[in-house]
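Thread amino acids onto this structure.
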Protein backbone atom coordinates (compact mmCIF):
# COMPACT_ATOMS: atom_id res chain seq x y z
CA UNK A 1 0.00 0.00 0.00
CA UNK A 2 2.73 2.44 1.07
CA UNK A 3 4.90 1.39 -1.88
CA UNK A 4 2.01 2.06 -4.31
CA UNK A 5 1.41 5.44 -2.74
CA UNK A 6 5.11 6.31 -3.00
CA UNK A 7 5.17 5.21 -6.63
CA UNK A 8 2.19 7.46 -7.36
CA UNK A 9 3.92 10.39 -5.65
CA UNK A 10 7.11 9.79 -7.66
CA UNK A 11 5.11 9.52 -10.88
CA UNK A 12 3.12 12.69 -10.13
CA UNK A 13 6.35 14.57 -9.24
CA UNK A 14 7.99 13.42 -12.48
CA UNK A 15 5.03 14.48 -14.64
CA UNK A 16 4.94 17.80 -12.83
CA UNK A 17 8.68 18.25 -13.38
CA UNK A 18 8.46 17.46 -17.10
CA UNK A 19 5.47 19.78 -17.53
CA UNK A 20 7.21 22.69 -15.79
CA UNK A 21 10.68 22.26 -17.23
CA UNK A 22 9.85 21.16 -20.75
CA UNK A 23 6.38 22.60 -21.47
CA UNK A 24 5.41 25.61 -19.35
CA UNK A 25 8.91 27.03 -18.83
CA UNK A 26 10.66 25.01 -21.54
CA UNK A 27 12.63 28.01 -22.76
CA UNK A 28 14.08 28.66 -19.32
CA UNK A 29 15.52 25.16 -19.41
CA UNK A 30 17.85 26.26 -22.18
CA UNK A 31 19.46 28.72 -19.79
CA UNK A 32 22.17 27.26 -17.53
CA UNK A 33 21.88 27.05 -13.79
CA UNK A 34 22.27 24.75 -10.82
CA UNK A 35 20.41 21.47 -11.17
CA UNK A 36 16.81 21.80 -9.97
CA UNK A 37 15.21 18.91 -8.08
CA UNK A 38 11.66 17.81 -8.87
CA UNK A 39 9.15 19.65 -6.64
CA UNK A 40 11.84 21.43 -4.62
CA UNK A 41 13.75 23.15 -7.40
CA UNK A 42 16.83 24.78 -5.80
CA UNK A 43 15.07 25.74 -2.64
CA UNK A 44 17.14 23.44 -0.43
CA UNK A 45 20.25 25.42 -1.36
CA UNK A 46 18.75 28.76 -0.35
CA UNK A 47 17.19 27.91 2.97
CA UNK A 48 19.97 29.14 5.23
CA UNK A 49 20.65 32.57 6.69
CA UNK A 50 20.68 35.73 4.56
CA UNK A 51 24.47 35.45 4.51
CA UNK A 52 24.32 31.83 3.24
CA UNK A 53 21.87 32.85 0.51
CA UNK A 54 24.08 35.74 -0.53
CA UNK A 55 27.15 33.50 -0.73
CA UNK A 56 25.24 30.90 -2.76
CA UNK A 57 24.00 33.54 -5.18
CA UNK A 58 27.49 34.97 -5.59
CA UNK A 59 28.84 31.48 -6.29
CA UNK A 60 26.15 30.80 -8.88
CA UNK A 61 26.73 34.22 -10.50
CA UNK A 62 30.40 33.36 -10.81
CA UNK A 63 29.83 29.87 -12.17
CA UNK A 64 27.08 30.74 -14.63
CA UNK A 65 27.95 34.31 -15.59
CA UNK A 66 26.29 36.24 -17.27
CA UNK A 67 22.88 34.59 -16.88
CA UNK A 68 21.37 31.63 -15.06
CA UNK A 69 18.09 30.25 -13.84
CA UNK A 70 17.20 29.14 -10.35
CA UNK A 71 13.98 27.49 -9.17
CA UNK A 72 12.04 27.96 -5.97
CA UNK A 73 9.70 24.98 -5.83
CA UNK A 74 7.83 25.37 -9.09
CA UNK A 75 8.81 28.84 -10.15
CA UNK A 76 11.87 29.92 -12.13
CA UNK A 77 13.86 33.06 -11.50
CA UNK A 78 16.13 34.34 -14.19
CA UNK A 79 19.27 35.92 -12.83
CA UNK A 80 20.88 38.59 -14.95
CA UNK A 81 24.40 39.43 -13.92
CA UNK A 82 26.05 41.38 -16.72
CA UNK A 83 25.97 45.18 -16.07
CA UNK A 84 25.13 45.95 -19.71
CA UNK A 85 22.19 43.57 -19.60
CA UNK A 86 21.05 45.11 -16.33
CA UNK A 87 21.29 48.55 -17.90
CA UNK A 88 19.26 47.47 -20.94
CA UNK A 89 16.66 45.95 -18.71
CA UNK A 90 16.14 48.71 -16.19
CA UNK A 91 16.26 51.36 -18.93
CA UNK A 92 13.28 49.77 -20.68
CA UNK A 93 9.90 51.17 -19.58
CA UNK A 94 8.35 47.76 -20.33
CA UNK A 95 9.98 46.42 -17.21
CA UNK A 96 8.41 48.50 -14.49
CA UNK A 97 6.48 45.55 -13.04
CA UNK A 98 7.77 44.53 -9.66
CA UNK A 99 8.81 40.99 -8.76
CA UNK A 100 7.52 38.57 -6.15
CA UNK A 101 9.55 39.93 -3.25
CA UNK A 102 7.85 43.30 -3.56
CA UNK A 103 4.45 41.65 -3.09
CA UNK A 104 5.60 40.62 0.36
CA UNK A 105 6.21 44.28 1.16
CA UNK A 106 2.67 45.30 0.24
CA UNK A 107 1.23 45.20 3.78
CA UNK A 108 3.98 47.63 4.75
CA UNK A 109 4.63 49.82 1.69
CA UNK A 110 1.33 49.34 -0.19
CA UNK A 111 1.06 51.48 -3.30
CA UNK A 112 4.27 53.42 -2.56
CA UNK A 113 6.72 54.07 -5.39
CA UNK A 114 8.91 51.08 -4.64
CA UNK A 115 6.13 48.52 -4.79
CA UNK A 116 3.66 50.04 -7.27
CA UNK A 117 3.81 49.71 -11.04
CA UNK A 118 2.04 50.74 -14.25
CA UNK A 119 -0.38 53.68 -14.13
CA UNK A 120 -0.28 54.03 -10.33
CA UNK A 121 3.53 54.20 -10.34
CA UNK A 122 3.52 56.79 -13.16
CA UNK A 123 0.96 59.04 -11.42
CA UNK A 124 2.78 58.93 -8.10
CA UNK A 125 6.16 59.43 -9.74
CA UNK A 126 4.83 62.52 -11.52
CA UNK A 127 3.30 63.79 -8.30
CA UNK A 128 6.48 63.38 -6.24
CA UNK A 129 9.28 64.21 -8.67
CA UNK A 130 9.04 68.01 -8.05
CA UNK A 131 9.79 67.41 -4.36
CA UNK A 132 13.25 66.23 -5.43
CA UNK A 133 14.03 69.15 -7.70
CA UNK A 134 17.57 70.45 -7.14
CA UNK A 135 16.21 73.73 -5.70
CA UNK A 136 14.31 71.81 -3.06
CA UNK A 137 17.27 69.63 -2.16
CA UNK A 138 19.47 72.69 -1.97
CA UNK A 139 17.26 74.16 0.73
CA UNK A 140 17.80 71.14 2.91
CA UNK A 141 21.55 71.27 3.03
CA UNK A 142 21.36 73.25 6.29
CA UNK A 143 19.58 70.30 7.92
CA UNK A 144 22.13 67.85 6.50
CA UNK A 145 25.00 69.87 7.90
CA UNK A 146 23.32 70.20 11.29
CA UNK A 147 22.77 66.45 11.47
CA UNK A 148 26.34 65.82 10.27
CA UNK A 149 27.67 68.00 13.07
CA UNK A 150 25.38 66.21 15.54
CA UNK A 151 26.79 62.88 14.37
CA UNK A 152 30.38 64.06 14.82
CA UNK A 153 29.51 65.27 18.32
CA UNK A 154 27.92 61.90 19.17
CA UNK A 155 31.11 60.17 18.02
CA UNK A 156 33.20 62.49 20.18
CA UNK A 157 30.96 61.71 23.17
CA UNK A 158 31.54 57.97 22.77
CA UNK A 159 33.91 56.70 25.42
CA UNK A 160 37.01 55.34 23.71
CA UNK A 161 37.87 54.97 20.05
CA UNK A 162 35.51 52.04 19.36
CA UNK A 163 31.86 52.48 18.49
CA UNK A 164 30.01 49.26 19.24
CA UNK A 165 27.18 49.73 16.80
CA UNK A 166 27.89 52.36 14.18
CA UNK A 167 24.72 51.57 12.27
CA UNK A 168 22.59 52.52 15.28
CA UNK A 169 24.29 55.90 15.54
CA UNK A 170 24.21 56.49 11.82
CA UNK A 171 20.62 55.51 11.27
CA UNK A 172 19.49 57.76 14.10
CA UNK A 173 20.82 60.73 12.13
CA UNK A 174 19.68 59.59 8.69
CA UNK A 175 16.18 59.06 10.10
CA UNK A 176 16.25 62.56 11.58
CA UNK A 177 17.29 63.87 8.17
CA UNK A 178 14.56 62.17 6.14
CA UNK A 179 11.91 63.20 8.69
CA UNK A 180 12.99 66.80 8.82
CA UNK A 181 13.58 67.20 5.07
CA UNK A 182 11.02 65.08 3.23
CA UNK A 183 8.37 65.06 5.97
CA UNK A 184 8.93 68.50 7.52
CA UNK A 185 8.73 66.97 11.01
CA UNK A 186 11.58 67.14 13.50
CA UNK A 187 12.22 64.15 15.75
CA UNK A 188 14.01 66.27 18.35
CA UNK A 189 11.07 66.34 20.73
CA UNK A 190 10.01 62.72 20.10
CA UNK A 191 10.76 59.88 22.47
CA UNK A 192 14.07 58.17 21.65
CA UNK A 193 12.60 54.79 22.53
CA UNK A 194 9.88 55.20 19.89
CA UNK A 195 12.45 56.01 17.19
CA UNK A 196 14.64 53.12 18.22
CA UNK A 197 11.71 50.74 17.95
CA UNK A 198 10.88 52.11 14.51
CA UNK A 199 14.43 51.70 13.19
CA UNK A 200 14.74 48.22 14.57
CA UNK A 201 11.32 47.33 13.07
CA UNK A 202 12.48 48.61 9.65
CA UNK A 203 15.60 46.46 9.61
CA UNK A 204 13.66 43.38 10.74
CA UNK A 205 10.82 44.02 8.30
CA UNK A 206 13.24 44.38 5.38
CA UNK A 207 14.29 40.73 5.92
CA UNK A 208 10.85 39.27 5.22
CA UNK A 209 10.77 39.41 1.39
CA UNK A 210 13.88 37.25 1.05
CA UNK A 211 12.71 35.04 3.91
CA UNK A 212 9.39 34.35 2.21
CA UNK A 213 10.86 33.84 -1.27
CA UNK A 214 13.37 31.31 -0.02
CA UNK A 215 10.75 29.47 2.06
CA UNK A 216 8.01 29.25 -0.55
CA UNK A 217 5.45 27.68 1.81
CA UNK A 218 5.43 31.09 3.48
CA UNK A 219 4.64 32.64 0.10
CA UNK A 220 0.97 32.00 0.88
CA UNK A 221 -0.48 34.60 3.21
CA UNK A 222 -2.55 31.99 5.03
CA UNK A 223 0.44 29.86 6.07
CA UNK A 224 2.61 32.88 6.78
CA UNK A 225 0.03 34.74 8.88
CA UNK A 226 -0.43 31.69 11.08
CA UNK A 227 3.28 31.14 11.68
CA UNK A 228 5.51 32.71 14.39
CA UNK A 229 7.21 34.69 11.59
CA UNK A 230 3.82 36.02 10.48
CA UNK A 231 2.90 37.05 14.05
CA UNK A 232 6.20 38.88 14.34
CA UNK A 233 5.61 40.53 10.95
CA UNK A 234 2.20 41.84 12.04
CA UNK A 235 3.60 43.14 15.31
CA UNK A 236 6.33 45.02 13.44
CA UNK A 237 3.78 46.39 11.00
CA UNK A 238 1.89 48.01 13.87
CA UNK A 239 5.07 49.71 15.10
CA UNK A 240 5.90 51.00 11.60
CA UNK A 241 2.43 52.27 10.77
CA UNK A 242 2.16 53.77 14.26
CA UNK A 243 5.34 55.78 13.73
CA UNK A 244 4.49 57.06 10.25
CA UNK A 245 0.91 57.90 11.24
CA UNK A 246 2.31 60.08 14.03
CA UNK A 247 4.53 61.94 11.54
CA UNK A 248 1.69 62.43 9.03
CA UNK A 249 -0.79 63.57 11.67
CA UNK A 250 1.65 66.10 13.07
CA UNK A 251 2.20 67.65 9.65
CA UNK A 252 -1.51 67.60 8.82
CA UNK A 253 -2.23 69.29 12.12
CA UNK A 254 0.35 71.98 11.30
CA UNK A 255 -1.33 72.78 7.99
CA UNK A 256 -4.76 72.76 9.60
CA UNK A 257 -3.58 75.25 12.22
CA UNK A 258 -2.11 77.50 9.52
CA UNK A 259 -5.37 77.24 7.58
CA UNK A 260 -3.62 75.42 4.70
CA UNK A 261 -2.25 78.72 3.45
CA UNK A 262 1.23 77.35 2.76
CA UNK A 263 0.02 74.53 0.55
CA UNK A 264 -2.64 76.37 -1.42
CA UNK A 265 -1.58 76.25 -5.07
CA UNK A 266 1.54 74.46 -3.87
CA UNK A 267 1.09 71.39 -6.05
CA UNK A 268 2.02 73.34 -9.20
CA UNK A 269 5.47 74.62 -8.27
CA UNK A 270 6.60 73.14 -4.98
CA UNK A 271 10.24 73.81 -5.66
CA UNK A 272 9.83 77.58 -5.73
CA UNK A 273 11.77 79.23 -2.93
CA UNK A 274 8.84 81.48 -1.92
CA UNK A 275 7.21 78.43 -0.39
CA UNK A 276 9.60 78.69 2.54
CA UNK A 277 7.88 79.49 5.77
CA UNK A 278 9.44 81.67 8.44
CA UNK A 279 8.81 79.86 11.68
CA UNK A 280 10.27 81.33 14.84
CA UNK A 281 13.36 82.66 13.07
CA UNK A 282 14.13 79.39 11.33
CA UNK A 283 12.93 78.62 7.83
CA UNK A 284 10.59 75.66 7.56
CA UNK A 285 10.62 74.12 4.12
CA UNK A 286 7.72 72.65 2.30
CA UNK A 287 8.54 69.23 1.03
CA UNK A 288 7.35 65.83 -0.04
CA UNK A 289 4.75 65.25 2.67
CA UNK A 290 3.30 68.71 2.06
CA UNK A 291 2.96 67.84 -1.60
CA UNK A 292 1.05 64.71 -0.62
CA UNK A 293 -1.19 66.62 1.79
CA UNK A 294 -1.90 69.20 -0.95
CA UNK A 295 -2.72 66.35 -3.39
CA UNK A 296 -5.02 64.83 -0.75
CA UNK A 297 -6.94 68.09 -0.55
CA UNK A 298 -7.35 67.90 -4.34
CA UNK A 299 -8.62 64.29 -4.06
CA UNK A 300 -5.61 62.96 -5.96
CA UNK A 301 -4.51 60.60 -3.18
CA UNK A 302 -6.22 59.07 -0.16
CA UNK A 303 -4.96 58.65 3.42
CA UNK A 304 -3.64 55.15 2.81
CA UNK A 305 -1.81 56.39 -0.30
CA UNK A 306 -0.10 59.09 1.76
CA UNK A 307 0.89 56.54 4.37
CA UNK A 308 2.30 54.20 1.69
CA UNK A 309 4.53 56.91 0.23
CA UNK A 310 5.66 58.10 3.64
CA UNK A 311 6.50 54.52 4.69
CA UNK A 312 8.41 54.03 1.42
CA UNK A 313 10.47 57.19 1.67
CA UNK A 314 11.15 56.81 5.38
CA UNK A 315 12.44 53.29 4.79
CA UNK A 316 14.35 53.90 1.54
CA UNK A 317 15.55 57.29 2.67
CA UNK A 318 17.19 56.40 5.97
CA UNK A 319 18.19 52.74 5.89
CA UNK A 320 20.08 52.87 2.58
CA UNK A 321 22.04 56.00 3.39
CA UNK A 322 22.94 54.80 6.92
CA UNK A 323 24.23 51.54 5.51
CA UNK A 324 26.17 53.30 2.77
CA UNK A 325 27.90 55.61 5.25
CA UNK A 326 28.75 52.70 7.56
CA UNK A 327 30.48 50.91 4.70
CA UNK A 328 32.26 54.08 3.62
CA UNK A 329 33.53 54.69 7.16
CA UNK A 330 34.59 51.07 7.49
CA UNK A 331 36.59 51.28 4.25
CA UNK A 332 38.15 54.57 5.28
CA UNK A 333 39.19 52.98 8.57
CA UNK A 334 40.73 50.07 6.67
CA UNK A 335 42.60 52.40 4.30
CA UNK A 336 44.27 55.12 6.41
CA UNK A 337 46.14 56.57 3.41
CA UNK A 338 42.81 57.25 1.65
CA UNK A 339 41.34 58.58 4.88
CA UNK A 340 44.24 61.05 5.01
CA UNK A 341 43.48 62.26 1.48
CA UNK A 342 39.81 62.73 2.40
CA UNK A 343 40.77 64.66 5.54
CA UNK A 344 43.15 66.85 3.54
CA UNK A 345 40.41 67.64 1.00
CA UNK A 346 37.89 68.46 3.74
CA UNK A 347 40.45 70.71 5.44
CA UNK A 348 41.18 72.67 2.24
CA UNK A 349 37.50 73.13 1.40
CA UNK A 350 36.72 74.20 4.96
CA UNK A 351 39.51 76.77 4.91
CA UNK A 352 38.35 78.10 1.53
CA UNK A 353 34.86 78.55 2.92
CA UNK A 354 35.83 80.19 6.19
CA UNK A 355 34.99 77.07 8.24
CA UNK A 356 31.37 77.06 7.08
CA UNK A 357 29.56 74.39 5.11
CA UNK A 358 27.05 75.12 2.39
CA UNK A 359 25.92 73.43 -0.82
CA UNK A 360 28.79 74.73 -2.96
CA UNK A 361 31.36 73.70 -0.34
CA UNK A 362 29.88 70.21 -0.22
CA UNK A 363 30.06 70.03 -4.02
CA UNK A 364 33.80 70.67 -3.87
CA UNK A 365 34.41 67.40 -2.01
CA UNK A 366 35.06 65.46 -5.19
CA UNK A 367 37.52 62.96 -3.74
CA UNK A 368 35.14 62.11 -0.91
CA UNK A 369 32.36 61.69 -3.46
CA UNK A 370 34.51 59.18 -5.36
CA UNK A 371 35.12 57.29 -2.13
CA UNK A 372 31.38 57.06 -1.41
CA UNK A 373 30.74 55.81 -4.95
CA UNK A 374 33.52 53.28 -4.67
CA UNK A 375 32.12 51.99 -1.39
CA UNK A 376 28.70 51.64 -3.09
CA UNK A 377 30.41 49.61 -5.80
CA UNK A 378 32.10 47.30 -3.31
CA UNK A 379 29.17 47.10 -0.90
CA UNK A 380 25.99 47.96 -2.78
CA UNK A 381 23.34 48.60 -0.16
CA UNK A 382 20.62 47.55 -2.59
CA UNK A 383 22.35 44.56 -4.06
CA UNK A 384 19.59 43.13 -6.24
CA UNK A 385 16.37 44.22 -7.84
CA UNK A 386 13.62 42.00 -9.08
CA UNK A 387 11.47 42.60 -12.12
CA UNK A 388 8.40 40.74 -13.25
CA UNK A 389 8.39 40.30 -16.99
CA UNK A 390 4.83 40.46 -18.21
CA UNK A 391 4.07 39.50 -21.76
CA UNK A 392 6.51 38.32 -24.36
CA UNK A 393 9.91 39.82 -24.09
CA UNK A 394 12.94 39.24 -26.18
CA UNK A 395 15.82 37.99 -24.17
CA UNK A 396 17.96 40.85 -23.14
CA UNK A 397 21.45 39.55 -23.27
CA UNK A 398 23.29 40.65 -26.36
CA UNK A 399 26.46 38.86 -25.40
CA UNK A 400 24.96 35.44 -25.49
CA UNK A 401 23.50 35.10 -28.96
CA UNK A 402 22.06 31.71 -28.17
CA UNK A 403 19.53 33.19 -25.77
CA UNK A 404 18.83 36.18 -27.91
CA UNK A 405 15.39 35.28 -29.09
CA UNK A 406 13.99 33.31 -26.23
CA UNK A 407 10.51 34.60 -25.49
CA UNK A 408 9.84 34.72 -21.78
CA UNK A 409 6.43 35.06 -20.29
CA UNK A 410 5.71 35.76 -16.68
CA UNK A 411 9.22 35.22 -15.39
CA UNK A 412 10.85 36.91 -12.45
CA UNK A 413 14.12 38.49 -13.30
CA UNK A 414 16.68 39.22 -10.63
CA UNK A 415 19.48 41.58 -11.43
CA UNK A 416 22.57 41.87 -9.30
CA UNK A 417 24.23 45.15 -8.65
CA UNK A 418 27.19 43.75 -6.81
CA UNK A 419 30.90 44.34 -7.05
CA UNK A 420 31.26 40.73 -8.08
CA UNK A 421 29.40 41.55 -11.28
CA UNK A 422 31.91 44.23 -12.11
CA UNK A 423 34.78 41.99 -11.17
CA UNK A 424 33.71 39.43 -13.74
CA UNK A 425 32.42 41.76 -16.42
CA UNK A 426 34.72 44.74 -16.24
CA UNK A 427 37.80 43.24 -14.72
CA UNK A 428 37.52 45.60 -11.74
CA UNK A 429 38.44 43.89 -8.53
CA UNK A 430 35.76 43.29 -5.95
CA UNK A 431 38.38 43.37 -3.23
CA UNK A 432 40.28 46.47 -3.91
CA UNK A 433 39.48 50.09 -3.24
CA UNK A 434 40.39 51.96 -6.39
C1 LIG B 1 22.93 55.21 -0.83
C2 LIG B 1 21.69 55.55 -0.98
C3 LIG B 1 20.69 54.87 -1.88
C4 LIG B 1 20.82 53.80 -2.72
C5 LIG B 1 22.05 52.96 -2.98
C6 LIG B 1 19.54 53.59 -3.35
C7 LIG B 1 19.28 52.60 -4.29
C8 LIG B 1 18.06 52.39 -4.88
C9 LIG B 1 17.77 51.35 -5.85
C10 LIG B 1 18.77 50.35 -6.40
C11 LIG B 1 16.46 51.44 -6.15
C12 LIG B 1 15.69 50.54 -7.12
C13 LIG B 1 15.07 49.51 -6.21
C14 LIG B 1 14.08 48.59 -6.85
O1 LIG B 1 13.47 48.92 -7.88
O2 LIG B 1 13.88 47.52 -6.24
C15 LIG B 1 15.90 52.54 -5.38
C16 LIG B 1 14.58 52.92 -5.43
C17 LIG B 1 14.05 53.92 -4.65
N1 LIG B 1 14.71 54.72 -3.76
FE1 LIG B 1 16.68 54.66 -3.38
N2 LIG B 1 18.66 54.53 -2.87
C18 LIG B 1 19.31 55.32 -1.98
C19 LIG B 1 18.80 56.38 -1.28
C20 LIG B 1 17.49 56.79 -1.32
C21 LIG B 1 16.95 57.93 -0.61
C22 LIG B 1 17.76 58.89 0.27
C23 LIG B 1 15.61 57.98 -0.90
C24 LIG B 1 14.58 58.95 -0.42
C25 LIG B 1 14.77 60.21 -0.16
C26 LIG B 1 15.31 56.87 -1.79
C27 LIG B 1 14.07 56.56 -2.27
C28 LIG B 1 13.81 55.59 -3.20
C29 LIG B 1 12.48 55.33 -3.74
C30 LIG B 1 11.20 56.08 -3.41
C31 LIG B 1 12.63 54.27 -4.66
C32 LIG B 1 11.56 53.68 -5.55
C33 LIG B 1 11.61 54.50 -6.84
C34 LIG B 1 10.70 54.03 -7.93
O3 LIG B 1 10.51 52.81 -8.11
O4 LIG B 1 10.21 54.90 -8.65
N3 LIG B 1 16.47 56.18 -2.02
N4 LIG B 1 16.90 53.10 -4.62
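Threaded sequence (434 positions):
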Amino acid sequence: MITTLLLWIVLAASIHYVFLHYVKYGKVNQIPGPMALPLFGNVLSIMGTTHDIWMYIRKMSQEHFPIYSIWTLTYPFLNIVHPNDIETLIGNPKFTYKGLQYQFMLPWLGSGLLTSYGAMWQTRRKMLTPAFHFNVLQQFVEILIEQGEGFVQTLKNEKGPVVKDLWQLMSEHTLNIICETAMGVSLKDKEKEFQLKYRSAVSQMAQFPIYRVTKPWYGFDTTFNHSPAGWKHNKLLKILHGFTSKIINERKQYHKQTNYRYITGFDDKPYKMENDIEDGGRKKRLAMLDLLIAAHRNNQIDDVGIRDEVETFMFKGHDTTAMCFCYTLMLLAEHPEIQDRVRAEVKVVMEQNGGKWNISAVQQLSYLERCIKESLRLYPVVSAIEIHSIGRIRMISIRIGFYLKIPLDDILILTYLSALVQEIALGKSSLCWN
